[in-house]
Amino acid sequence: MLISLGVSAGSLSNFTNPEKDTVILKFGNNSQIVIYVDNKEDLEELTQYDINKILEDLNLEVNNLSDSVQVLEIKDETGEKYLKDTTVVYKVEPTTTWEDNDEDKKRYRYYPRSRFDFVFDVGLNNYLEDGKFPVGSKPYSLMPLGSWYWNLGPSYKVHLFGPVFVDMAITAALNVYRFDDARSRFSADENGVNFYLDSANVSYKKSKLSTWHLQGKIVPMFAFGSNHRRGWRLWNNIDKGFRIGAGVYGGYRIWSRTKYKYDDNKDKNTSNHLLNNVRYGVRGQVGFRGIDLFVEYDLSEMFQENQGAPQLNRIQFGVTF
User: Fold this and answer.
1) Which of 26, 75, 204, 238 has its CA 20 to 30 A from that of 84?
2) Which residues of 95-104 are buried (b: 16+ CB within 10 A; e: fewer)?
3) Tens digit of pLDDT for each residue in 152-185?
4) What angle do CA 258, 264, 265 make, to 5 degrees?
């Protein structure tokens, strides 16, 4: 016994002109069941089968069909699969073909609920002391437009339910802190951290501190304006509409270096500089289509405790592509 179901984007025109010895069951607005038989004996044999079971099995697969032409075959090698008062396990072998219609493909494209991506943050960074940016008279005050933040790496967006999904990523983050005064220096040794202004008779050009962190983030997001059609189980790309969310991040310092440029000379020093190895904080982001705006604030202090360093909490903000 072989049962086939053909579903197409158009009408059921293939079944509107049946041959003789045909039983047609019409229902709904434009639906019908067509049974072809060669003789009366075959029709009587059909009464031994449970039509309800057949329809239930086909209905399980119809919910997942698109508007393209598809054929479902339910094979019964023994002939006893759908006999009344019989319970068996069935196997459905679907075959799918797309019509060469770009408009239909675009309209009924399936968007996966979870997917891998690549995140690239670029922006500016600074730090707060007692909730305020350090004033320019302090040797550790930063040049706002010279202190950059880059963050890049793979991400994974997981859809949970409705408009809610989670944006997760493992990234490498580079913070560049360019001091506002090119004479700014700081020492970090057994005596602790000490910021000061150098007074040598040279032409000062640049003074900065750079750090690399390996870090991860988990940010629950709410996506609005996505195309979620229950009937066809389509979940539109979460990057197509407006979204907003807030979460946490954490990282581990893997590299840090100071660089002082004066006259034609450069002094570089790579060490831990008594910086905290671990950083963690909160992140907020809001986006539309392919671009997000973000802000991150470190709840952990920049330098290690009890080292005489100012209590600084980093903050970075910018654009995510």
Assistant:
1) 26
2) eeeeeeeeee
3) 999 999 988 888 999 999 999 999 999 999 999 9
4) 35
DSSP state letter for 263:
T
Structure tokens at 3: 């049962």
pTM of the model: 0.64
Residues 133, 136, 142, 146: is their CA dihedral positive or negative? positive
In angstroms, the Cα distances linking 65 to 3, 52, 68, 227 are 17, 20, 8, 18
What is the b/e burial string over 249-275, where b = at least 16 CB atoms within 10 angstroms of the residue's CB? bbbebeebebbbbbeeeeeeeeeebbb
Q: Are the beta carbons of 72 and 94 closer than 8 angstroms?
A: yes
CA dist 103 to 68, 110, 233, 241, Å?
12, 14, 19, 21
Residue 23 contacts residue 39 (beta carbons within 8 Å): no
Closest CA to 253 of 216, 218, 217, 211: 211
**What token pair was written down for 76?**
């019964």
SS3 91: coil
Please state, in angstroms and rounded to a whole number, the distance separating the CA atoms of residues 140 and 314.
13
Beta bridge partners of 157: 115, 167
**Burial environment of residue 40 by CB neighbours within 10 A (0 to 12, 13 to 18, 19 or more):** exposed
pLDDT in tens, 61-105: 555 555 554 555 555 556 566 665 544 444 444 544 444 455 554
Distance between CA 24 and CA 12 in Å, rounded? 13
Q: What type of residue is 243? A: R
Q: How far apart are CA 205 and CA 242, in angstroms?
A: 44
